């Protein structure tokens, strides 16, 4: 399958700088794509958050550029996850060293999605999110927030969490503490899956059902241009709704050889 993608990051309506950063990296190997997608939401005064998210994206890019062939040939799913966890651990150390040098508290969320062969791999820290959409929408990551922990422990309902003034308080992020617990998951990619990576600046003003409905509209016409236009429309809509934070989204889909051949047949008339 060919990976197709659309991605947009915007500083939003209020903040003077954009502390979000993302990575979109795709290689082709033996007519099959392998892709790495990373969403980071930096935190810290001045430009510190921007530096933290930039360190994260750069580190993942360097790792992927050097090791994508090794990942393709690796048959142990847990080993691939371990490779990605090691990158986060390296990033955590780099950001902590930067924060100590600047005498500042600096951090970032990291949500990373690797697509290889027929599997997806996720490592994640913070409250950015990865969704998978097919016949339903499913949040694949867990929010590392105080309200999410309260919901999990039946202290708060999901509706109460959404409206809570404390919903942005993180229980974990990269760069603040020496030890972090990384959320890990892998699974099989199914036909017609679409993945969405986004920061809280998007999902704060965009319900899951709305995300699902919008992706459903374009299911039969997915390509790079369609996904790019859809990502831009998502960001525009959130800005119109008055979101104050930076806004970033990556939408990832697939075009199969079978689908390409069917389209070709229609164009040439056989």
From TrEMBL:
Major enzyme class: hydrolase
PANTHER family, per the entry: PROTEIN PHOSPHATASE
Domain PPM-type phosphatase residues, every copy: 4-254
Protein name: Serine/threonine phosphatase stp
SUPFAM superfamilies for the chain: PP2C-like (SSF81606)
EC number: 3.1.3.16
Gene Ontology MF terms: protein serine/threonine phosphatase activity
Keywords: Hydrolase
């Amino acid at each position: 399958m060919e990976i197709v993608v659309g991605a947009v990051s915007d500083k939003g309506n209020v903040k003077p700088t954009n502390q979000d950063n993302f990575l979109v990296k795709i290689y082709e190997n033996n007519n099959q794509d392998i892709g790495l997608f990373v969403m980071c939401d930096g935190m810290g005064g001045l430009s510190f958050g921007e530096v933290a998210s930039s360190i994260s994206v750069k580190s993942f890019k360097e790792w992927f550029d050097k090791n994508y062939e090794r990942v393709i040939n690796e048959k142990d799913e847990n080993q691939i996850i371990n490779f990605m966890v090691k990158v986060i651990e390296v990033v955590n150390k780099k950001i902590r060293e930067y924060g100590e040098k600047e005498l500042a508290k600096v951090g970032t969320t990291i949500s990373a999605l690797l697509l290889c062969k027929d599997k997806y791999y996720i490592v994640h820290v913070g409250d950015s999110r990865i969704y998978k959409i097919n016949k339903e929408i499913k949040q694949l990551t867990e929010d590392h927030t105080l309200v999410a922990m309260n919901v999990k422990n039946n202290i708060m309902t999901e509706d109460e969490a959404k409206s809570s003034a404390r919903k942005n308080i993180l229980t974990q992020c990269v760069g603040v503490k020496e030890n972090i617990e990384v959320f890990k998951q892998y699974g099989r990619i199914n036909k017609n899956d679409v993945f969405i990576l986004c920061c809280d600046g998007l999902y704060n003003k965009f319900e899951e059902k709305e995300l699902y409905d919008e992706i459903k509209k374009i299911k039969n016409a997915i390509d790079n241009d369609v996904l790019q236009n859809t990502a831009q429309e998502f960001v525009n809509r959130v800005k119109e709704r008055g979101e104050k934070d930076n806004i970033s989204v990556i939408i990832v889909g697939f075009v199969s050889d079978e689908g390409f051949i069917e389209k070709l047949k229609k164009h040439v008339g056989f």
